[in-house]
Amino acid sequence: MIWNKQNPYLAEIISAKLLSGKNSNKEIMHYKISLGDSKIKYNPGDSLGVIPLNNHQLVTDIIIRLGYSPLNIVEGYDKTIFELLESQFEILSPTNRFIAYINENIHHTELNKIIKNQDKTLLSKFKYGKSVLDFLNLDSKFNIDLKIFLSLLKPLQHRAYSISSSLLKYPKEVHLTVSTQRWEKNSQKYSGVCSTFLADDCYQGTKIKVFLIPNRNFRLPIDHDKPIIMVGPGTGIAPFIAFLQERTQLKSHGKNWLFYGAQFRKTDHIYENELIYFQDNKVLDKLDIAFSRDQEKKIYVQDKIYEVKSEFFKWIKEGAYLYVCGDAINMAKDVNSILQKIIQEQLNCSEDKSILYIKNLKKEKRYLLDVY
Question: What is the DSSP letter of 1?
Answer without folding.
Answer: -
